[in-house]
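Recall the central idea of this unit: under ordinary conditions, the amino acid sequence of a chain determines the structure it adopts. In this exercise we apply that idea directly, starting from the sequence alone.
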Amino acid sequence: MNPPAKIGKYDIQGILGKGGMGIVYKAFDPAIHRQVAIKTITKSVLDPSELQYTLKRFRHEAQAVGRLTHPSIAAIFDYGEDAELAYIVMELVSGKPLSQHLHNKTHFELKEICGIISQLLDGLGYAHARGVIHRDVKPPNILLNDDGRIKITDFGIARIDTSTLTQVGEVMGSPGYMPPEQFAGAEIDARSDIYSAGVIAYELLTGRKPFTGSNVEIMHKVVSEHPANPSEHNPGLSAQTDLVVQKALAKKREDRFQNAHEFSAAFVKSLALSGRADTAQPATDTMADAATGRIGSNLVNAARMISGLQPAEAPPAPGDPTPPSSAAVGSISMDTDGRRARILFVDDEERILTALRSIFRAKYHVFTATNGPEALEFARKFKPHVVVSDQRMPDMPGVELLRLVKETSPHAVRILLTGYSDLAAIVGSINEGEVYRFIAKPWDNRDIQKTVAEAVAVGLELADIGSAPADALPITA
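Accordingly, the structure predicted from this sequence is:
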């Protein structure tokens, strides 16, 4: 079937794409001499019982986006209908959908990811401030130009805050990017779009979605499971990036960022920290380090910054005629040379301490405390290499305890045990160097052993730098 010569006053120049309900044409507006895109619905392909509802939603898209003027939102110029078609005339964007880049495994640098997500959140924040919620934020609806600029498109299921088109209980959207409340058919607000943007951020940072599977499997995971931290798939990312993305993906809306600007500011800041933590190191190199029993320099430098020391100089690149010695900072051996590191676990629940003792006491000197003052006194006297504290304790939250540990035992590597609902409270502590890593509860035994082993290696290295001598150790449990 050949394209029509004209739609309304517009001269048709070609086909940009096809969908189930119609075709998107490239066209020319002769009145003001500009090229446009025309998105059409062919009325004859619709079930007669659904025709009016679909056309009403299509007009609604034109109304929703027609009121928005923003550099990151594809503008809508006109709406029209004839006997065969309903059509929206919109800005012609020269670019590819972000989904195509992801499908082609395009590698984005952190700076590019920062730009994409910042523009996305800026556009969404602008729309939200004007009462428009997109409801279907996903890579196919984000066009990316060659110069890195994005355009958000397809507000086809957007809701204007005065509209009754989309009722509570009506589930619409794309499962891989939908927040829990959207699966439940509950009321949608701006924080639902923030969740979807968080999924896109996760996918750009890791090359995979937080949850995969069939639609039913995804729905179950979104509602009941927590995704792996992005740094588990991309070891170059900072712990704060983990916190920021997990906060965007929180199950409860009140635990997410409350607006797009908050998310954008935290995301940009976290990627700046990732950039300082040697994020250019490929994941394969990090895996190779692990396979040879060594930890990358980013871990050492992170710990040095935590303790107020200057980052170590990077070791020579592969192929350098003068490779570093085995003692060089930047490639610490996981072998502790027979030394048993001192680890202090702090939790007010004895069952948690019992579980942690059983995991670690065969390999390390394990000590426990059930409150902040007791833990601080131990840290002052015995200089533990690693301190792991629960966040939710009476009288003294974990982030406060670890901040004080930093003052009394600055070379100790500090880890926070936390539930995801605590993320808002600890984002700042990561940024300020009070927490080196966080471990989610309930933990995976292999993951916690790996994280603690890395912290021990760093802690022993920092102890060698010159921490104050410790008192004689008490007998361990």
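Residues 157-172, 277-300, 303-336 have pLDDT under 50 and may be disordered.
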